[in-house]
């Protein structure tokens, strides 16, 4: 009998609660099959929470999360919930990623059997991971930019230590994978615009220093514009990619389009002492509560959490169930990114295959 898993759950806004319900349903089925129990603790936060309390996250929540095996987070944000400066209230990227120092944003991009992406590739040909630096880069300027009535300025900061740790993370991750689909090589691609900006030149310099410690993993560079092209034209060449925060935000959405859309893409925000897992998409308030949303991004996020918590067999069981549900045609994507038959039916199809 394995020990219980202690799981934090932040349900979020819009479609968040229904997605989290779906993921918990799958997680409980997986845990039962693997012989462990899941103890769930609610972590209140998000836009609705901000509207009620004036805080994006319950005080003390960060410490609580550090003591758990992981946090499963639904998407947050509501267009009508605003802070006094006009930006959205209750967004948690700046709070959780910075507060937990979750420096590696891990975003697998994988085309499943039975899913049609936006390119002509088939299953097995797209299987890479974007590692997005998560605590600095352009988004460090969040809320700190200089604004006058005539202009606004944000700055992009890259630190040696920030690149060192995320590059190491990327190389370590590459060692655990089976390489790029095209040639089976373990490969880490550094994506930057070092031809234009000093900050990106530093990113590349530190990446190269780290790469020297991993002679068994191929290291290469792509400028971000060329990388955007290559991720569409020849995604099978990629294994692990590492990049600055803003570039990773954009290229991970591009990658999502090649594997069936944002609703297929999970992510993990991983630091040395805490981690949380969430879909890469937003809270889609216009379709909330209508049983339309694709739960797969949230379900696969729970799978990443299992892997991170050292429950590898459970993680494989969960991923296998999702894959079979698509391969069998039991879950089918709609052109609008939703799932045929609805969120609950898709969840049941996945649970039946656990
Ligand atoms: C993401 C999201 C967030 C980000 C938004 C909601 C602040 O787009 O996780 O990719 O840009 O980091
Ligand atoms: Mn994004």
Description:
- This protein has 354 residues and is an alpha/beta fold.
- It has 2 domains: 1-102 and 263-354, Isopropylmalate Dehydrogenase (3-Layer(aba) Sandwich); 118-258, 3-Layer(aba) Sandwich (Isopropylmalate Dehydrogenase), CATH 3.40.718.
- It is built from 11 helices and 12 strands.
- The strands form 2 sheets. A 10-stranded mixed β-sheet has the order 2-1-3-12-11-4-5-10-8-9, with helices on both faces.
- The longest helix is centred in the first third of the chain and has 19 residues, at 16-34.
- The two termini are 19 Å apart.
- Manganese (II) ion is lined by residues 249, 253, 280.
- Keywords: Manganese, Metal-binding, NAD, Oxidoreductase.
- This is Isocitrate/isopropylmalate dehydrogenase family protein.
- Residues 6-350 form the Isopropylmalate dehydrogenase-like domain.
- Its cofactor is Mn(2+); Mg(2+).
Question: Portion of residues in helices?
Answer: 25-40%
Task: Using the coordinates above, name the CATH class of the largest domain.
Answer: Alpha Beta
Strand order of the largest sheet: 2-1-3-12-11-4-5-10-8-9
End-to-end C-alpha gap: 19 Å
Strand content: 15-25%
User: From the 3D coordinates, which CATH architecture of the largest domain would you assign?
Assistant: 3-Layer(aba) Sandwich
Outline: globular
Number of domains: 2
Q: Helices, strands, pairings?
A:
Layout: E1 5-10, H1 16-34, E2 38-42, H2 47-53, H3 61-66, E3 70-73, H4 93-99, E4 104-110, E5 127-133, E6 146-147, E7 152-153, H5 160-176, E8 187-192, H6 198-211, E9 218-223, H7 224-233, E10 240-243, H8 245-257, E11 266-270, E12 275-279, H9 296-308, H10 312-327, H11 343-352
Parallel strand pairs: 1-2, 1-3, 3-12, 5-10, 8-9, 8-10
Antiparallel strand pairs: 4-5, 4-11, 6-7, 11-12
Helix pairs in contact: 1-9, 1-10, 1-11, 5-6, 7-8, 9-10, 10-11
Bound molecules: 3-isopropylmalic acid and manganese (II) ion.
């Amino acid at each position: 009998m394995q020990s219980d898993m202690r799981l934090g759950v932040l349900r979020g806004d819009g479609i968040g609660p229904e997605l989290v319900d779906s993921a918990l349903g799958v997680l409980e089925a997986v845990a039962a099959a693997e012989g462990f129990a899941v103890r769930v603790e609610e972590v209140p936060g998000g836009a609705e929470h901000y509207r009620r309390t004036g805080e994006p996250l319950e005080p003390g929540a960060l410490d609580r999360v550090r003591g758990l095996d992981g946090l499963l987070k639904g998407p947050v944000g509501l267009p009508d919930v605003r802070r006094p400066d006009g930006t959205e209230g209750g967004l948690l990227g700046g709070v959780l990623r910075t507060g937990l120092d979750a420096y590696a944003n891990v975003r697998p991009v994988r085309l499943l059997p039975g899913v049609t992406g936006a390119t002509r590739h088939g299953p097995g040909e797209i299987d890479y991971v974007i590692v997005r630096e998560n605590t600095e880069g352009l988004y460090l300027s969040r809320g700190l930019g200089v604004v006058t009535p005539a202009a606004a300025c944000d700055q992009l900061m890259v630190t040696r230590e920030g690149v060192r740790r995320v590059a190491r993370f990327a190389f370590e991750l590459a060692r655990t994978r089976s390489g790029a689909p095209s040639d089976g090589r373990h490969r880490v691609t550094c994506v930057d615009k070092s031809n234009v900006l000093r900050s990106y030149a530093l990113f590349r310099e530190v990446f190269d220093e780290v790469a020297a410690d991993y002679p068994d993993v191929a290291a290469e560079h792509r400028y971000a514009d060329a990388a955007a092209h290559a991720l569409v034209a020849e995604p099978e060449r990629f294994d692990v990619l590492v990049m600055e925060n803003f570039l990773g935000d954009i290229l991970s959405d591009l990658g999502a389009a090649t594997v069936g859309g944002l609703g297929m893409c999970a992510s993990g925000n991983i630091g040395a002492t805490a981690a949380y897992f969430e879909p890469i998409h937003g809270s889609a308030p216009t379709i909330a509560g209508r049983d339309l949303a694709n739960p797969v991004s949230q379900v696969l996020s729970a799978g990443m959490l299992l892997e991170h918590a050292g429950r590898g067999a459970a993680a494989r069981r969960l991923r296998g169930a999702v894959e079979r549900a698509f391969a069998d045609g039991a879950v089918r994507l709609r052109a609008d990114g939703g799932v045929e038959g609805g969120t609950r039916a898709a969840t049941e199809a996945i649970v039946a295959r656990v």
